[in-house]
Design goal:
With 244 residues, the chain is α/β, with parallel strands linked by helices. 38% of the residues lie in helices and 24% in strands. A hairpin with a 2-residue loop joins strand 4 and strand 5. The structure holds adenosine-5'-triphosphate and magnesium ion (MG). Adenosine-5'-triphosphate binds next to helix 2.
Length: 244
């Protein structure tokens, strides 16, 4: 490895050769992927391809039987979910669970408490603004609509000044105007704050617009990677996605 590539490895989030079994079944096989600060990596694949399972491995909730994960040059294989999150790895969920009995203010307080050390320079108003959440402190989180729930949870992650965020289908259940807004929110996190984002998304047209590069999983294996133009015209991807 030359010096330039070593420097890049020290400034990115990547996994190498990750393989996972669950209940005796192969779920992921030899998966490599890499995202740089200020970059959006799209992660796509048919239902059941292993996208969410890969996120579970990356954030430390599933233990792969093989492979390594690096965060800005640090091997984090032995880091727990909480320690990865303290390092600056954020994660959103396909079906976000909201603390419905708490108000927005209480949700922020709970997020601060559970995620020490809280970065004092970054306050809840800043995080809410970045996530596009309209702040009404005493509103019950459970009364928020789908998009606002996602924004609230994203704001709780932003509060910790993450370096990388794994987003699991953040556009699901949103209408087109909301997806346009989500697109702007993600771009701002990436362009202004140089956060690296791995984005699981089924809408290939959204990824074509927003992603710098795309990795395609099928049956737990990477079958294609590269620019959105390259990947979305790759016959292997068409076969897996549209004819599988
Ligand atoms: N805890 C688990 N135990 C056993 N099998 C699991 C578990 N979690 C996921 N799987 C299996 O792993 C495979 C990959 O699931 P995963 O949820 O990662 O796919 P996905 O690509 O995120 O799909 P989708 O697009 O539907 O969200 C599926 O066959 C699923 O049934
Ligand atoms: Mg999934």
């Amino acid at each position: 490895m030359n010096n330039t590539s070593k420097n890049i490895e020290d400034r990115c989030f990547y996994c190498q050769d990750v393989s996972l079994t669950l209940g005796g079944r192969n779920i992921l096989s030899n998966v490599d992927l890499k995202v740089l600060p200020g970059e959006i990596l799209g992660l796509v694949g048919p239902n059941g391809a292993g996208k969410t399972s890969l996120f579970e491995v990356l954030c430390g909730r599933y233990k792969p039987f093989k492979g390594k994960i690096f965060f800005n040059g640090v091997n984090i294989d032995k880091y727990s979910f909480i320690n990865r999150s303290k390092l600056g790895l954020g994660r959103t969920y396909q079906s976000p669970v909201i603390p419905s009995d708490l108000t927005i203010e209480e949700t922020f307080r709970a997020a601060r408490k559970s995620y020490r050390p809280f970065k004092k320079t970054h306050d809840a108003e800043w995080a809410a603004r970045l996530s596009g959440l309209n702040l009404t402190w005493d509103k019950q989180a459970g009364d928020l609509g789908t998009f606002d729930r996602r924004k609230l949870l994203l704001a709780c992650i932003i509060l910790r000044a993450p370096k990388y965020i794994l987003m699991d289908e953040p556009a699901s259940g949103l209408i087109n105007a909301e997806i346009d807004e989500l697109d702007l929110i993600i771009r701002r996190l990436v362009d202004e704050y140089k956060i690296g984002v791995i984005l699981i998304e089924h809408r290939l047209e959204l990824l074509s617009e927003i992603a710098d590069k795309v990795t395609v999983l099928d049956l737990g294996e990477v079958i294609s990677e590269g620019t959105p133009e390259f990947v979305f015209s790759d016959p292997k991807v068409h076969e897996a996605y549209f004819e599988g």
